[in-house]
Amino acid sequence: MNKIVQKDEERRLRQRAKAYEKTCEEYSYEISVLQARTDYIAEFDYFLDLLTLLLHPAKLKEKVGRPLIGLFCIQAPLELFHALGVHPVKLCSGSYAAQRLSAAYLPALMCPMLKSYIGSSEFAASTSTCYDATIVPTTCDWVVKVPEIAKETITNLHYLELPHVKQNEKGVRRWLEEIYALKLFLEQTTGTKLKRQDLMNSMNTFMRGWKIFQELIELKRKNIISGVWVTVIANTFMLDDITSWAKKIELVVKKLQSKQPAANPRKIFLAGSPIIFPNLKLLQLIEQAGMTVCADDLCSSERIFPGATVYDDPSEHGLLKALAERYHQACICPTFADNERRINTILRITESNNITGVIFHVLKGCHPYDIESLTIEATLRANGRKFLKIETDYVKEDSQNILTRLEAFAQTLA
Amino acid sequence: MVDNLRLLIQNFMFVLWTYGGRIGLNFGYSIPCFSCPYVPGCAGHCYLMTLQGQWGFAFYFPELLSYKGFKVVLYFLIFILLTMLLSKLWCGWICPFGTLQEWLAKLRKKLGIRETEFSWKTRERLKPVKYILLALLIITPLLITFGGLHRDFYLFFCQICPGKPIMPLFAGQTRNFALDFTNTITLTFSVLSIIIAAGTLLGSFFKDRFFCMFCPMLPLIQMSKKISFIRFEKSVHTCSGCGNCQRMCPVDIKDVHLEKTEKDVMSEDCMLCMRCSEACPEDNTVTVNFLKYKLFSSSRKYVAENYQQGKSLNE
After folding, report:
1. What is the pLDDT of residues A137-150, one digit of tens each?
2. What number of C-beta contacts closer than 8 Å exist between A and B?
3. How many helices (H) and strands (E) does chain B have?
4. Which of A289, B134, B236, B289 has its CA 20 to 30 A from that of B182?
5. What gap in Å lies between CA A279 and CA A393, rounded to an integer?
6. Which among A312, A316, A325 is the nearest to B243, CB-wise?
7. What is the C-alpha separation between A208 and A245, in angstroms, rounded?
């Protein structure tokens, strides 16, 4: 009997090792594809190097020199972590190989991004010992359930209960309470007390990062830098110290600023489920179909920063309140109930940048985005925008199908 | 940038209203802000005093066609003209009592003490106070003229206005803090006045623009909103709902943030300090217009450049 168990265990370990190997291959393949692009410049190397760090959290820990805290979604105020001397890392994963590893026993209709995370959490190299804690905001059902499934790898778990109605006083207050609870949790984990001055410094640091990232987005709007690169850069967010990361972006912006914008009448806005390296399939296909992504509202790309966190009251409470509101009120995650203003962002950006087409990306199993695509499609069509919904999974097999649809869509834009 | 400009203008206007009379300036008796007439050497009189002083006569038949009666109409027309011209800018940029409150709030922020918060419900409940004050302010003179109310109720609002004891302090006069033992009415008023003044000072230290929540001048100015040259508008279709406006507002107005249909967002409590438009990160979403000219329009660039807040580190 013991022998069978042992054999089983050995087989599982072999599987894991193989999946890990495949994931590493996947990463280096996608990186080499990026390096082979015609618009590649040497300044991107820094970001390409960072991309692999998520597979090796120990290296990341060494690089940033702070304890790591794992994190899902974009609602936990990063400034708070930074002020307490810890480094938050987003645990999203885009690896196909890692997804296949866990897909065997997970529900078929589960979000592939989280399947991929669960798969990659089984790799020996990315053991949870590198993360001092894991913060899980209760956004979508899949995210909420991940800690249950991956309970062996997620230790020191903290839930942030996200009020899904945000435009009333109750929602605002409850979320502020959650932020206070997060502060307490982090203080207990790190054994330090939050200092007002540190929080203010940290908010300034992130504000500077936001400002520079905005300049990069401006270049994307003008079609100077490809949407693929911006997503890649956004994917490296928090994979290094924020200040040095921002400095590298500044270099990219400086280098590209003088470049002439490439003319392309087929500009599109990309909305929907997150796109995480190495799953750049859709972005690559969109380019292949002759369109350019000039704007997006993905939480893994343009929405990595919540925006300018301005405050009037510089007391600790005032700062925490500003952070709480900023990370909550304007967040357009489809899990929110009163999310009707989400469409404003799409309409505003498409109008001011002459973008006629909107492509809506839905990962198979990403129900919130899937549901919201209905109302968004109706409103966008009523406002004269072209709309295409692409539903896809972490597989390459459907590439040809998607490409055909994208090419047909591109024809309608010209 | 706009905020710095506002601070500059506010401080300048404070000096002007408080000491302007000493160099012979007099801007009249219809000023739509708390330029307190009790300040010796002030440069203009708050319209609330004029209104109370004159209002009783307005319906007093023998005086109706005299110059006195004409002045009632004249001062009112001047007041309307002034509010048409600058609307609530009087409150946010010119009112010396508002400036004084902001100085106190600045002190609190420097000390890192948190601002006192009122719940949305409490704010709604406090809203009618200024209308009640305004109603009393209008009715009392009529009651004195026709209802036989005691003469000592004259200038009822000024008797309890915190501006009366506080503002003259800047001209070196402390006598409005004294208790008036003439009769029960004057004694009550002077005690009440001191209590309200102390409460206001304390309140505006812990809460931005504390007194403005109760100020009867606001609804008076709001009267001319429809005909005013100043328009405070929001493009509801570009708002992302981030809530920066509500957080930056000294009087916590939530209407600008939550409005989804109406273009006009100047609510009764708004003082046009323009901080919300400054903090709005969406281009051309919150705008202040003078006739067809844009005074200020929100922009992401402006926010990125002005709210890096490196400077606030030393505050």
Report:
1. 999 999 999 999 88
2. 107
3. 14, 3
4. B134
5. 10
6. A325
7. 11
Residue A368: C-alpha distances to residues A130, A332, A336 (Å): 31, 11, 9
Measured between CB atoms, does A308 come within 8 Å of chain B? yes
The DSSP letter of residue B31 is B
Q: Cα dihedral sign for A79, A84, A87, A88? A: negative
- CA–chain centroid gap for B241, Å, is 28
Note the ipTM here.
Answer: 0.90
The pTM (predicted TM-score) of the whole model is 0.92
> Domain spans of chain A?
2-412
Plot region of B208 (φ>0 → left; ψ -120 to 50 → alpha; else → beta): beta
* A269 close to A357: Cβ distance less than 8 angstroms: yes
HEC-encoded secondary structure of B74-122: HHHHHHHHHHHHHCCHHHHHHCHHHHHHHHHHHHHHHHCCCCCCCCHHH
Residue B59 has pLDDT above 80, yes or no: no
First to last CA, chain B: 17
How sure is the predictor about B308, in pLDDT bands with cuts at 50, 70 and 90?
A: low
Domain ranges of chain B: 2-219, 229-306
**Backbone dihedral angles phi then psi of residue A231, each to the nearest 5 degrees:** -65, -40
- What distances in angstroms separate CA B77 from CA A35, B51, B81, B133, B290, one per listed residue? 73, 12, 6, 22, 20
What pLDDT digit, counting tens, does each position of B141-165 carry? 888 888 888 888 888 899 999 999 9
At the second CATH level, the architecture of B229-306 is 2-Layer Sandwich (3.30)
CA angle A369/A371/A374 to nearest 5° reads: 105
A195 interfacial to chain B (CB closer than 8 Å)? no
Burial label, B307 (beta-carbon count in 10 A; 0-12, 13-18, 19+): buried
Count Cβ atoms within 10 A of the Cβ of residue A339 and give its class: 0-12 exposed, 13-18 middle, 19 or more buried: buried
Q: Is A310 near chain B, with CB under 8 Å?
A: yes
Q: In this structure, how many other beta carbons lie within 10 angstroms of the beta carbon of residue A308? A: 24
The residues, any chain, with a CB within 8 Å of residue B99's CB and separated by 6 or more, are B10, B11, B13, B14
How far is B278 from B297, CA to CA, in rounded Å? 8
Q: How far apart are CA B306 and CA B1, in angstroms?
A: 7
CA angle, B159 then B161 then B164, to 5°: 80
- Eight-state DSSP code of residue A136: E
3-state class of B65 per DSSP?
Answer: coil
Residue pair A211/B308 in contact by the 8 Å Cβ criterion: yes
Residues of B with CB under 8 A from a CB of A: 109, 112-115, 119-121, 208, 237-244, 246-248, 250, 257-258, 260, 275, 279, 281-283, 300, 303-304, 307-310, 312-313, 315
